[in-house]
Amino acid sequence: MNYLRLLPLLTISLVACVSPTILRPGDYQQTGDADQALFSSQQLRLYPDHTFEYFRHEDVIGAGQQGSGVYHVQGKQLQLQFGPPVTSRSATAQSRSLPPVSQGEELNVTFLVTGAIGRGIPEVVPGATILAYNRSGQVVAGTVSDSVGQATLQVNRSQQPHTLRITSGGFHAWEQVWPDQATAYQVHLQANVGTSYGAESRMHFRILQQTAKQLIVKQGRDTTKLRWGPLR
Predict the structure, then answer these.
(1) Other CB atoms closer than 10 Å to residue 90's CB: what's the count?
(2) Which of 79, 126, 154, 184 lies at 20 to 30 Å from 25 by C-alpha?
């Protein structure tokens, strides 16, 4: 037998055994079996530059955990290395003046409410509660956003509105002083996920199975199925 001929093949086999597994960038979200209720779930976003965002969602709003950093894959091992704790992202808004509807005491304020988790793209937020308060903290007017995240609030100046506030389950609230003229707001809410993992924290998973649409990993005794989706 010509052993010299086998050396290249043996080398290729050894390299294949230690070469890193390539994980497809995307949004991996935990799924359960048909008869399994998930009271908490994991979400892992992997980006092409080997950065990640990790979220552990809980039934109780704000009771979960989140973090981001750099991930490494070697063979069947996935390691998440967390960076500095994620600071709480405040809701933001853009505004523009609208022409007055009339010369009377009514003032129209319109809204487009969107929301996102982490670096995810904004999506419309239906059912957000929009309230106007006077200086005493009493509600003088209110409405909710529709199925496309839009709403209009018409308030009489005699009601002396002072503060606008938008709330929606799972998001940090947004608050703004009542405008002195008709205004259109585009409000972007940030998800209220919970506390952050500490800097330099690490999380290790063993990759059990990977397909185009699913990633199965094991952490300690727990096996988790993650459904792949495109980054949004």
Answers:
(1) 12
(2) 126
Instruction: Count other C-beta atoms under 10 Å from residue 147's C-beta.
Output: 8
Q: Count CB-CB contacts under 10 A for residue 187.
A: 24
Write down the pTM of the prediction.
Answer: 0.68
pLDDT tens for residues 19-30? 456 899 999 999
Name the maximum alpha-carbon separation found in the chain. Answer: 100
pLDDT above 90: percentage of residues in the chain:
58
Map 44-83 to HEC letters.
EEECCCCEEEEEEEECCCCCEEEEEEEEEEECCEEEEEEC
Confidence of residue 36 (pLDDT cuts 50, 70, 90): low
Segment 65-93 shows an average pLDDT of 87
Q: How many CA atoms lie within 13 A of 147 on its CB side?
A: 0
Determine the 3-state secondary structure of 90 from DSSP: coil
Q: Which letter, b or e, does each residue of 70-89 get, where b requires 16 or more Cβ atoms within 10 Å of its Cβ?
A: ebebeeeebebebbeebeeb
Q: 168: how many CB neighbours lie within 10 A of its CB? A: 23
Question: Which pair of tokens denotes residue 55?
Answer: 């979220």
- In the DSSP assignment, the letter for residue 120 is P
